[in-house]
Amino acid sequence: GGLPQLVYNPLSWTKMASIIFLDSPVSSGFSYARDPKGCDDVGDYSSSLQVQRFLNKWFTDHPQYLSNPFYIGGDSYAGKVVPLIAQYVSEGIDKRQQPRINLKGYLVGNPMTDPKFDRNFQVQAAHGFGIISDQIYEAAMRNCKGDYINHVNQMCAEVLQTVKSVRFMYWPFCYELMVLQVPTPAG
User: Fold this and answer.
1) CATH numbers and ranges of domains, the chain
2) pLDDT digits (tens, 9 = 90+) for 165-184
3) Which pTM value belongs to this model?
4) Number of helices and strands (H, E) in the chain?
């Protein structure tokens, strides 16, 4: 039970920069809502607006940071929401809303952008990283005709099965790691 505790890290990035760590949408990570209704609308657009409102409130309460260059960053699924947050902050700047956040840009790491595009690019990425051979890559190109999601024929399905068997040798699916294999006692 109890709330998680923060741990001091003497080598933290905050020695060189001011960083706001924000878990979004509400109810993810350390974030919470005082009113359960705050968790009702957690779509990309609504949660991005919530972040923009949070930032406005935070900078209103901490005006000493307004002159600092401000970047918005995130990874994975945040590739869909970080640009929205940056857009909303930028629109506020254009409308001369206060506080005037000194937005300089945004960054996304290993971002999800469009599920179809992201999944369809995995064959090229696996080839580029040297995870699959030229022969497997060329067979995929030839048999799948650039569509690696909708298997257009049996040869495509077979070559994609080969790709799937090796593409996560460095990065296994998280849900595959969460399945605990408990050995059965002998006897």
Assistant:
1) 13-109 (3.40.50.1820), 115-178 (no CATH)
2) 775 565 555 444 444 444 44
3) 0.66
4) 7, 2
